[in-house]
TrEMBL record:
InterPro entries membership: Ferritin-like
Coiled coil: 40-67
Keywords: Coiled coil
Protein name: DUF2383 domain-containing protein
Length: 144
């Protein structure tokens, strides 16, 4: 049976990955630049693949999925809608996605420190999520 740290870390990884997918889906239809669109689609697909791995682990451990907090989702939606009222959608989208990546990296590292006794296989999923966010933010720099 997995430890409490393992379950808690896995659930936080689950919620974080879902938050990223949700944010990407909110902006993807507003992207105007084809190259930026392709980058965002790539990272949406990468997030979804990782989410599938996380879901498999949750099922393996007979755990329920974790949803991002309602407050976090509401704040994300408000920020995205507010920022996209302005004109330059692509720059705003790149900025929003970069901020989201940075928050995701910060959160997942905080939870990895908070749950040090988690199984290495779950820590590996968290490292994968952090690396995915780092690469996404790096690929967005050109559009800021």
């Amino acid at each position: 049976m997995p430890t409490e740290d393992t379950i808690n870390l896995l659930k936080e990884c689950d919620a974080g990955c879902k938050m990223g997918i949700d944010a990407i889906k909110q902006v993807i239809d507003k992207v105007e630049n084809k190259k930026l669109y392709d980058i965002i689609v790539k990272y949406l697909n990468d997030h979804q693949k990782l989410q599938n791995k996380i879901t498999d682990k949750l099922n393996e451990f007979d755990c329920s999925e974790e949803q991002p907090s309602a407050m976090a989702k509401a704040m994300s939606h408000m920020k995205i809608n507010f920022k996209l009222v302005k004109g330059e959608h692509d720059k705003e989208i790149a900025d929003l996605m970069t901020d989201g990546c940075n928050m995701g990296i910060k959160s997942i590292n905080k939870y990895m420190n908070q749950y040090p006794a988690a199984l290495e296989s779950i820590k590996s999923l968290c490292y994968d999520l952090a690396e995915l966010e780092e690469n996404f933010a790096k690929d967005l720099r050109h559009y800021l």
